[in-house]
Amino acid sequence: MKHPTLVLGLILLTAISGLATDPARPFRLAIVGLDHGHVDGTLAETLKRSDVRLVGVVEPKPALAAQYAQRFHLPASLLFSDLEEMLKTAKPEGVMVFTSTFEHVRVVETCARHGVHVMMEKPLAVSMEHARAIQQAARRSSIHVLVNYETTWYPSHELAYALVRRQGAVGELRKIVVRDGHQGPKEIGCPESFLSWLTDPVLNGGGAIMDFGCYGADLITWLMQGQRPLRVTAVTQQLKPEVYPKVDDDATIILTYPRAQGIIQASWNWPIGRKDMDLYGVTGAIKVADRNTLQLQNTDGNVHDLTPAPLDASYREPIAYFIAVVRGEISEHPLSSLETNLIVTEILDAARQSARTLRSIQLPEKLEE
């Protein structure tokens, strides 16, 4: 027979655990890092939602922390300079990460020790060494590690995938061309706190090849249903060395598959902002112009404008998605999954090596762990 005190302790522990995972209760969310420009939208959205409670913001730079505290009217009790202290004090269910890419591995390893789930802004890591460390930490602690891409929430991408993989609307897929980028981070007015690491070859792992190459690698890996390319060939350029002296500002990556090819065009030199792609099969083609615009053209030459259906609420934007995954209400989407993004990192690693050595990089048969 169990001791009465032990029984009471178990009851209390169960009750507390139940409260922490009760879907009716606001999700305890923390923000880690204010260096990434995308944090502005996430903070604004978090503070106005009833299904989320912001319990902590970690930023070691006092001036940057003060700037955001003033802009978003954050009380001093929410601000922390140390991640470990925040995790112990605020006890979040999950954290959303807006640090440099280089910092992702440290954040995940620290959160994993506390059993706290993580969603980070793309890409996963600056290198396969960091990506494997993230994978190992996630496995040890059984936490979710998710990667947020804007393009995950495009209804047009879900319809394109359904047309290709479920309906066979264009026959066997032969070529995927993905274009991402804009005029350049400095040109579009990214703040200095963002620019300082985004244009650093260590903290970002590269320039446009990392910032926008990851979108194409992610989408192509998904459309190829997790298949890894046989080899990777890449060319990078510095078309504006006076603006970006340390990193590339233009990159083209070619992924060779047994019966298909992927082409990634990532640039800080587009005259316009763009996130679009073209899919070519044996019997037709699909043009995805933006999040809601899609065309299907068959070999007869007829063009069909298609309207994608809205995404399910839990797969429509990152905050609701993160909450639903952590609480076990939905499955991870492949575009944000650790499994897919390990392949993305492998592709980007090989692309940088290819550009540096001026040769194609053959990938090993299996993803090394």
Structural summary, described in words:
It is a single chain. The longest helix has 20 residues, at 338-357. This protein is α/β, with parallel strands linked by helices and 369 residues long. Helix content is 36%, strand content 23%. It has 12 helices and 15 strands. A 9-stranded mixed beta sheet has the order 14-13-12-11-7-10-9-8-15. The protein has a 6-stranded parallel beta sheet with strand order 3-2-1-4-5-6, sandwiched between helices. It folds into 2 domains: 4-148, Rossmann fold (3-Layer(aba) Sandwich), CATH 3.40.50.720; 151-312 and 331-362, Dihydrodipicolinate Reductase, domain 2.
Topology:
Blueprint: H1 4-21, E1 27-32, H2 39-48, E2 52-58, H3 62-72, E3 79-80, H4 83-90, E4 94-97, H5 104-113, E5 117-121, H6 128-141, E6 145-148, H7 155-166, E7 173-181, H8 192-198, H9 208-211, H10 213-223, E8 231-237, E9 250-256, E10 261-267, E11 274-281, E12 284-290, E13 293-298, E14 303-306, H11 318-326, H12 338-357, E15 361-362
Helix pairs in contact: 5-6, 6-12, 10-12
Return the average pLDDT rounded to an integer: 94
Distance between the termini: 46 Å
Compute the number of structural domains.
2
Sheet with most strands: 9 strands, mixed
Q: Let me know the CATH homologous superfamily of the largest domain.
A: Dihydrodipicolinate Reductase, domain 2
Number of strands: 15
Write a concise keyword list for the protein shown above.
369 residues, six-stranded parallel beta sheet, globular, alpha/beta, disordered N terminus, Rossmann fold, nine-stranded mixed beta sheet, Dihydrodipicolinate Reductase, domain 2, 12 helices
